[in-house]
Design the sequence.
């Protein structure tokens, strides 16, 4: 009977692991994260919540839907918090252990020193951290997570090898070659995500001889929106468009980024969602003052969302102002209810908890096998039969809900729906 109790304890521990509230990094308030998660955006032609966008980007790069910052202390952040750091604090996100290296030979080809662990007799300091002794050995950690900044020195080599190995047919690549191709893809995607709001993060210095220099205190940098607001003055003065050069460089890099997101719903239902690049283009080439004013308002909403995000007393107001604009447009198009529904869908975790509920039902049946004719055995048998309906209905509900969100049945395969 002891082995049964061990299995039961293992199951309970697994369920607790899935449902526990882990320690958070804590920089972003929960209310702010939850509100940001409900923002509608368009990627690849589909309107989705920021929560879904963040979740699948983190899974594709990191392999999991949460990012562990400290394994010993069990400190982790959600996908939305990770995306917020990428967007608003890229210099912080670049220190996160994001990229999984499954083979130390990958690091050898890139010329990067692998992580080491101490083995043998190890002493501990006053804080309980392991320190080296004469009898300590350093062993290479074959599988570990590395940060963007740790891999950055080898970026040229990574791109070179990634390009070479990508030309080899997939079934002919070695394990190391395939991992380098995947790493190069993930590294590029990560970098492009940090670039999404560069146009708002980097304020631009003004040349003292520039026509706009008298508008701001000496040495002060100005946001991109300030230059666009004074576009007529720049044109009337006959000055060169140099103040906008840096803005257009950032804009051009953004437009080439694979992480392009459309942040604003269109004014007409049959039109496409609007990218930041299109907003800036509308300001420059607007046919009417009304169009330019509207575009300027939206540009400032994006700028404030970014610049105020790291100011605790102002970030909530900036987020709500932006959210009011995009949510009202999404509601007018009739798509916002689906955005909220998709966020709730992932909160229920149908496909994660369903299999564990089946295991729990299997444990109930074990008591019937041990004593099939006893009252306990007969009860456990009927209880298991009844219990199996719970995960079955949960999985059916999850598949149905997912099909509704995707607006189609699983016509290719069930995996695509789940």
Sequence:
């Amino acid at each position: 009977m002891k082995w049964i109790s061990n299995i039961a304890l293992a199951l309970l521990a697994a369920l607790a692991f899935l449902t526990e509230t882990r320690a958070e990094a804590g920089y972003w308030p929960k209310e702010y994260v939850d509100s940001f998660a409900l923002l509608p955006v368009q990627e690849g032609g589909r309107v989705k919540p920021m929560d879904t966008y963040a979740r699948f980007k983190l899974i594709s790069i990191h392999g999991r839907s949460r990012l562990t910052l400290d394994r010993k202390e069990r400190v982790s952040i959600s996908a939305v918090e990770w995306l917020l750091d990428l967007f608003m604090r890229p210099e912080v996100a670049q220190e996160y252990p994001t990229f999984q290296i499954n083979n130390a030979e990958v690091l050898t080809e890139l010329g990067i020193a692998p992580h080491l662990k101490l083995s043998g007799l190890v002493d501990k300091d006053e804080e309980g951290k392991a320190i080296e002794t004469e009898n300590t050995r350093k062993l290479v950690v074959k599988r570990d997570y590395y940060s963007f900044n740790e891999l950055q020195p080898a970026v040229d080599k990574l791109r070179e090898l990634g390009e070479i190995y990508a030309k080899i047919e997939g079934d002919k690549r070695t394990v190391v070659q395939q991992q380098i191709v995947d790493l190069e893809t993930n590294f590029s995607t990560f970098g492009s995500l940090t670039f999404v709001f560069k146009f708002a993060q980097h304020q631009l210095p003004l040349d003292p001889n520039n026509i706009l220099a008298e508008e701001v205190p000496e040495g002060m940098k100005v946001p991109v929106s300030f230059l666009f607001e004074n576009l007529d003055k720049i044109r009337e003065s006959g000055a060169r468009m140099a103040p906008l050069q840096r803005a257009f460089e950032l804009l051009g890099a953004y437009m080439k980024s694979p992480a392009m997101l459309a942040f604003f719903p269109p004014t007409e239902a049959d039109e496409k969602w609007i990218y930041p690049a299109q907003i800036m283009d509308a300001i420059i080439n607007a046919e009417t003052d009304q169009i330019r004013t509207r575009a300027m308002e939206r540009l400032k909403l994006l700028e404030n969302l970014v610049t105020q995000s790291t100011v605790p007393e102002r970030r909530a107001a900036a987020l709500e102002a932006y959210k009011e604009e995009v949510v009202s447009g999404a509601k007018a198009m009739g798509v916002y209810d689906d955005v909220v529904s998709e966020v709730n869908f992932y909160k229920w975790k149908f496909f994660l908890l369903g299999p564990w509920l089946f295991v729990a039902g299997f444990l109930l049946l074990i008591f019937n096998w041990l004593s099939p004719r006893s009252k306990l055995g007969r009860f456990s048998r009927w209880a298991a039969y009844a219990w199996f309906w719970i995960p079955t209905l949960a999985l059916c509900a999850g598949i149905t809900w997912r099909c509704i969100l995707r607006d189609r049945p699983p016509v290719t395969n069930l995996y695509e729906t789940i």
